[in-house]
Amino acid sequence: MSHEIVSQTQSKMNKAVDHTLHEFDNIHTGKATPAMVESITIDAYGSSMRIKDCAAISTPDSRMIVIQPWDKGVLQAVAKGIQVANIGLNPNIDGSVVRVPLPEMSRERRLEFVKVAHRHAEDGKVGVRKARHDGLDALKKAKLPEDETKRLEKEIQVITDKAIADIGDHLASKEKDLTEVN
């Protein structure tokens, strides 16, 4: 049975990994994904809303994002929100939908995004190591028997290694997505 300190440490590490994966999703790979625009905030109904909260987002092909607001009154707000977000996309209003074509990415731009992915991965690894450090500190303060402390330290190291390997695997996958040309 796992100790409470180990469970808390693993939970913190999982949050660091999940945050890193979310950051990876926001990196433009040249392939259209709803994640590229869903968290952009727009001014609608007198307040700030995310696009995914007021519209259906689809990707009919790898070079196009289509946003269909549930209320046609927010079409202009959606288009303006994407432009203001300054993510390099140029939305077009087409009837009752906003079409967002993805521009072709240059080699230099792809390499820039690889660097961004590496930075996010390193930040995620730092978060995992901080969780490990906090967990080991909590073990020392818990004043458990020495043999149990050693066993729990090894358990924390195993989940640390797994979390860092997860980030590394996802980074390799993201790098492959970024460098291969469609």
Keyphrases for this structure?
single chain; 182 residues; Topoisomerase I, Chain A, domain 4; Gyrase A, domain 2; four-stranded antiparallel β-sheet; two-stranded antiparallel sheet; 56% helix; cytoplasm; protein biosynthesis
Descriptive overview:
Keywords: Cytoplasm, Protein biosynthesis. One of its GO terms (biological process) is translational termination. GO terms for molecular function: ribosomal large subunit binding. It is found in: Cytoplasm. This is Ribosome-recycling factor. This protein has two domains: 4-26 and 106-179, Ribosome-recycling factor (Topoisomerase I, Chain A, domain 4), CATH 1.10.132.20; 34-101, Gyrase A, domain 2, CATH 3.30.1360.40. The strands form two sheets. The chain has a four-stranded antiparallel β-sheet, with helices on one face. Strands 1-2 form a two-stranded antiparallel ribbon. The chain has 182 residues and is an alpha+beta fold. The chain has helices at residues 4-25, 75-84, 107-142, 146-179; strands at 41-44, 47-50, 55-61, 64-69, 92-94, 97-101. The chain is built from four helices and six strands, in the order αββββαββαα. The N and C termini lie far apart (48 Å). Helix content is 56%, strand content 16%.
What does the average pLDDT come to?
89
Any idea what the radius of gyration is?
A: 21 Å
Give the number of helices: 4
Number of strands: 6
Which structural class do the helices and strands define?
alpha+beta
Beta-strand proportion? 15-25%
What separation lies between the terminal Cα atoms?
48 Å
Q: H/E series, N to C? A: HEEEEHEEHH
- Strand line-up of the largest beta sheet: 3-4-6-5
Highest-level CATH class of the largest domain: Mainly Alpha
> How many separate domains make up the residues?
2
Protein name: Ribosome-recycling factor
GO molecular function, one term: ribosomal large subunit binding
Domain Ribosome recycling factor: 22-178
Subcellular location: Cytoplasm
